[in-house]
């Protein structure tokens, strides 16, 4: 089991000091998508406030393994 750390940056940075033990990077990717989904479903209005947010996943040495970037925009028809 490896320890993965999930950081969120959305104008502020939230640091994961404990990390999560997971079997491999594929499990970490699944966890990241599920975690992001929970964040979006818990606070859906924040997706539309114009702020880009990034979920960055690192190893114990703070090496970025991958990241998910979220930014919602309205289409031209909704900008009136």
TrEMBL record:
InterPro entries: DUF6894. Pfam families: DUF6894. Residues 3-70 form the DUF6894 domain. This is DUF6894 domain-containing protein. It comes from Sphingomonas guangdongensis.
